[in-house]
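Please predict the structure of the following assembly.
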Amino acid sequence: MGQLSLSGVTKSFGPVEVIKGVDLEVADGEFCVFVGPSGCGKSTLLRMIAGLEDVSGGTVTLDGRDITNLPPARREIAMVFQSYALYPHLTVRDNMGLALKQAGHPRAEIRAAIDRAATMLSLDALLDRRPAELSGGQRQRVAIGRAIVRRPKLFLFDEPLSNLDAALRVQTRIEIARLHRDLGATMVYVTHDQVEAMTLADKIVVLRAGRVEQTGAPMQLYNDPANTFVAGFIGSPQMNFLKSGVLGLSSHSAGIRPEQVQLTDGAGQISGRVSHVERLGGETLVYVHTADHGLLTARLFGEHDRTVGSELGITFDPARLFHFDKAGHRLR
Amino acid sequence: MSQPRQSPARSIAAHAVLILWTLIALFPVFVTVVNSFKSKRAIFTQPLALPGPDSFDLVGYQTVARQGDFVAYFQNSLVVTCLSLFFVLLFGAMAAFALSEYRFRGNTLMGLYLALGIMIPIRLGTVAILQMMVATGLVNTLTALVLVYTAQGLPLAVFILSEFMRNVSDDLKNAGRIDGLSEYRIFFRLVLPLVRPAMATVAVFTMIPIWNDLWFPLILAPSEETKTITLGSQVFLGQFVSNWNAVLAALSLAILPVLVLYLIFSRQLIRGITAGAVK
């Protein structure tokens, strides 16, 4: 249970079409991440699945049931918001139990469901507090708990980690991944952070300007991007784009991952000057300014000593290049 | 909240200005209350002196008490003010919620239309209002006053409250929708408590003009049974002779209920006024 499918879903605000026909299948138990730059429509799409935005065209079905026009409460979904959205006047326990109470479940059952979720998220000690008395990380755990309590067919996450600091973000990310394994529930997760997308997803949906650019498993998108947008968006640091003409290649442009680039003191395939070095301990990022291709990034593992301003050469295995045509589509 | 950076001289100057302003603001109230406890002669000879052993006189209060109807006048004022306040807050908040929450055709236009009343004084329509009240048989009833004051208070209420409601987190309302709360529950249980400071601000700004109004009670409800306290106090003001003791005593008493209401709202009010400043 929990198989979501969108077919031809569109959304317009007045004359402006923000979602331009999205077809998508999310299998039962799958962790699907919508990723894209801000303004690409990923949150709007999630809110349409939740029923918080009207669908202008197309249909949304969950387990074969058409839920396109159902109110949010009757869709058997739960949602976790970026700003936590806990009810400020209710205790943690009441926050978590409100949906079941509204649905008219018996008191004992609600209590059991809350306790089960609280144990899962180690919230037991906090049940009688109010949201104002909790830290950001605790609030987000309560918000996740509130979603679990309902035992929905589908979990929706709207950038749930964006308000947390870096350490807590990693911790909560791991927790969400663990929950997904334990619950085996279908989850749709929106983020602009491609690291979150890569680490959590079974399936990534890359969106741009209201359209799906590519759908696939994280490594599939990384190793086999369909166009320059996906190639540039997935992977950090960003892929280097080279002008094919200069290199004597037939394509319009060619991409190479920073980790596939080597630096030599000799001439190499491209020559350039070091413009900046970032030392991260485990890896070193060297930014090289080149006359033909602009700024290129090399990701070297371990510590490397390169002085800013020194001349060097860049080498790479041509087999590792991704070739794109003028419109940005991949040439295979 | 003393800040270490602030020099004592600046702090003293700021306090001096504030204290001066307080004195100016409180002076008329002070004169009214002080003189209400003095004999008529003392009011005119030494209007600024405090009541002493020879000038102390409760004749004003005795006159007001003997007049008898003053309890009823107070009651009328309280009923009209509280009911109007209730309706202004309720309908104002509802309209503000609709304007800030729902996208519909003519939303902005409707908001402007509702805010228009802030700029156009309701008194311009007095003749039309009186005609309507006569036609509906509401002249000399408190209902007439409540209706007029509700209309008078709504524009500002809608304007202020819709601004505040726009700031209430969308996520919170959406969480309520997903949890199956009705729009009414979302409005009453989630949104209203969060805009309480704004409600208090609106309450104070609405309440004081209503309590102090003389115009509409005089025109719409001048009968003995429906007189409000401001209108009732006018009995002591004649064309040739005014009973100043009684007028001052009545006005001093009239300050009390509104002061109590103000104190109830004021804590929230300060938060409402400073909300925009510190957020």
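The mean pLDDT of chain B is 87. Residues 114 and 155 of chain B are 5 Å apart (CA to CA).
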